[in-house]
Every structure is written in structure tokens, then in C-alpha cells.
Amino acid sequence: MNASTLLRHTLRAARPLAVPRALPGAYTHRFASTFALLEQRDGKLQPSAQNVVTAARTLGNPVVGFVAGKAAKEVAEQAAKIEGVDKVIYVASEAYEKGMPESYAPLVAENAPEDTTHILSVHSIFGKNVMPRLAALLDVQQVSDITAVESPDTFVRPMYAGNIIATVQSSEAKKLITVRQTAFKAAAVGSAAAAEIVEGKDSKHVGSVEWVEEHPAVSDMPDLATASKVVSGGRGLKSKENFDGLLIPLANAMGAGVGASRAAVDSGFADNSLQVGQTGKVVAPELYLCVGISGAIQHLAGMKDSKIIAVINKDPDAPIFQVADVGLVADLFEAVPEMTKKLQK
Ligand SMILES: Cc1cc2nc3c(=O)[nH]c(=O)nc-3n(C[C@H](O)[C@H](O)[C@H](O)COP(=O)(O)OP(=O)(O)OC[C@H]3O[C@@H](n4cnc5c(N)ncnc54)[C@H](O)[C@@H]3O)c2cc1C
Description:
single chain, seven-stranded parallel β-sheet, five-stranded parallel β-sheet, about 25% helix, electron transfer activity, flavin adenine dinucleotide binding, Rossmann-like_a/b/a_fold
């Protein structure tokens, strides 16, 4: 295969995820509900909210969304437009803006209706912070990082960096669940708010930790977590200059987000926020192109659900070829500039 053939294959469209419907045997108790924590940032509902709603809808009960933060009322109006949300509860206060678990978890416990059967959140930094603390407050065991709902009490989740796919059953009366964003299709957003919006209770929880400052990485490129195409670079690129000078022009030419292996991040080629894998981000774009990445299991844990995996590696025995849909055995220093030039044309 040459670079042009690889290019043709990698740009092929892949099948989208199916929208799950409420499962047979799903809860339909008259007053029961599923409570969905919807992540916001700077007054903007995060795209993950739509995936969490899809997961919540499969459980069959009415879906109550929850948002908190400085501009929570405006965020609630955005959330009320998501198809499948029946009601949104909001708490408008700067104290909850950063989703600090010490104050956010008791706030959720206070606002989740008594009859809530499930509390869901995305398996992001936010969800991974808040949910364990909430589980401790409610004295229940959490089910983390689910990729499918088999029934209202049975869920599928990866373990050991995705080497085992476990089906787990929870006997808790209230099930606390974090949802892998990429495993659930985003619910559609309507043009007008369809759900009821209600102000929640705020007992002014004060946590023991104070938010001081943050330094988010700023980039004009598509966001790695939500990009439909990702070009990811590894140690094979050999330097930051090559990462910036070869990989980024290729990603730009493809309209793709940029990712990196941990070795590339640890060597200073790329920012930590770009790391894909077990200890980085989990992505599942339509297309994931690995350049100079060997395919360690910890990297695969973050990208192997991508619809099409394409590879450029000079070693034909590199493990990454075992998960690749298309691969090019070539020196990346020749193949990448050639592909970029062809795409720019
Ligand atoms: C607890 C734990 C958590 C981890 N979490 C992560 C994680 O989240 N993400 C992650 O990525 N890793 C993670 N790792 C590290 C992981 O085990 C690997 O070390 C890492 O993924 C290797 O990165 P790499 O593929 O870029 O580098 P390497 O394994 O060194 O591979 C470089 C590849 O580039 C190819 N190459 C070299 N030169 C060229 C060239 N000129 N042209 C084409 N190909 C070339 C080589 O053939 C090789 O296959 C974790 C490890 C541990 C122990």
C-alpha cells in the first residue's frame, strides 16, 4: 500500500453509533426518575451532556438533568433543548462553577429526587471527581465507565485497560454510574426548550478545598475529545520540531484533532492534554491515524473503539498493525509530507 491508497481508505466514512431505545424490562415506575449530572464549563453545556442523556434514556424512566454553576439558569435552558430530557434542575451559584467535588457532591445528594433510581455522569475528570464522593455520601457502590446498558441493573464496562469486557450487575437501590462518552451517541438538540426548568435547593455547601487557578491549553484545532478525525503522534516523530512541523500540518490538512502517545508527551513533543490512552483521554473518532506509535495496550485503551484505525509505522511487526484497519509500512518522514501535500491540493 502506498500513501495515496492509505489516504483513500482513511477518508472512508464509517457507520455512526445506533441510538439506543429504552430497553425491554426498563423501569417505568410512575414517579421514578433517572438523574443526569450535565457538565458545564463557563456557562456552556458540554457536548458530553447529550451522550449522558442517551444513556439515561435507555433506562426507561423520565430523565431529570442537573446543572450547577454561575450561569446555571442559562445552561439549564440549553439542557432543556436536548431531546429526551423531561426536566432540568439548576442551582445558580459561583460556588459550584468549577464542579469541586467537596461541595458539588452534597449539592447533588440534596437535589436528586427521593425516587431517583439511577444517577449518571460522564466519565470525565468532573464525573470521576464527583461520583465517588457522592457514592460515599449515599453509601452505595458506583459502577464506572460503562459502555453499554444491558438492563436497568446490568451494565458493560471495560477493565484492565480494556483487556476484559465485564458485564456487571448492581443490586444497589440507587445506582451511581459514570458513562463512557464515546460509547453512547449524542442525543439530538431541538430548537426550543421542551423540558420543564426548576430551580434547585442550595444549602451553601462549603468544601474544604478552594479553587485557586487553572491554565487550560488553548488551541484553534478541533477538540481531541469530540473531533471526528484524530491524527496522533508517537515517539517515532523523534522531536517536538517534527511533531509540530510534520504532524500538525497533516492534521490541519485533514481537519483533524491532534493526539499523542504518552511517550511523545513525556518526551516533551506534545502537551499533556493531548495524551490518548489509559492515563489520558479516551477517544472514538470516525478515523484515528497513528503516526510513529507502537501500539502499547495502554495506548490502545484510549483509541481502539475508533471506527477506522489507520497506521504509519516503519516496523511491520509493530503491535499497532494488529488493530489497524489500514496500515502503511513506511518511514513517516517520507509518508507524512507526501500525504499532507496531496491533501493540501
Ligand atoms: C500505568 C501506565 C499507563 C500508561 N498510559 C499510557 C497512555 O495513557 N497512553 C500511552 O500512549 N501510553 C501509556 N503508557 C505507556 C505505554 O506503555 C507505551 O510506553 C507508550 O504508549 C509508547 O509510546 P509510543 O508508541 O509513542 O513509543 P514507542 O513504543 O517507542 O514506539 C515508537 C514507534 O515508532 C515507530 N517509528 C520509529 N521511527 C519511525 C519512522 N521514522 N517512521 C515510522 N515509524 C517509526 C517505531 O517502529 C515504533 O513502533 C502507560 C504505561 C503505563 C505503565
